[in-house]
Here is the input.
Amino acid sequence: MNKVDHIGIAVKNLKDTLPYYTETLGLKLLGIEEVESQKVKVAFIDAGNCKIELLEPIGEEGAIAKFLEKRGEGIHHIAFGVTDIRTRMEELKKKGVQLLHDEPKPGAGGAEVAFMHPKSSFGVLYELCDKGEKLNGHL
Ligand code: CMX
Here is the structure.
């Protein structure tokens, strides 16, 4: 793991939430995008050495919609920035960590992502986030 890349926060909708981050807290909005594969619309906020990812569900399916229904708004996951995500996944699997997928999935900004089951990470949903070399800009 290189560093914490971002902290994911589940919100009911970005419209009501963003002014708190940008106006009340005075943080900078870096960009908004839809990640269809995860059924979310995300906003990235610059929080200095780490980003905050606000996650609004698209529709009633998907992990964020379910999380909001069961737990309400709040911290959803912590994402580690990694390189060579497939190797990291293999290493973790060998150490007994339960990953949610065998192959990385497409994430925001073209990153490849993979999640560890919170049951094998002491109650925390961790993400691996590999931006490769193809990325630049806000992410
Ligand atoms: N953090 C910590 N624990 C969590 C959790 C979270 N975010 N989400 C679920 N859990 C816990 C639940 O509390 C529950 O625990 P108990 O059995 O003790 O009650 C257990 O995990 C199972 O939860 P569930 O509500 O039945 O949910 P599912 O098993 O259907 O799904 C999970 C949980 C983690 C497998 C699913 O959310 C998932 O696949 N997540 C990965 C993808 C994802 O989160 N995408 C959204 C973000 C996308 C992005 O960043 O772009």
Residues 135-139 have pLDDT under 50 and may be disordered. DSSP finds three helices and eight strands in the chain. The helical segments are 14-24, 63-71, 85-94. Residues 8, 35, 38, 40, 42, 55, 63-64, 66-67, 70, 76-77, 100, 107-108, 115, 117-118, 123-125 surround carboxymethyldethia coenzyme *A (CB under 6 Å).
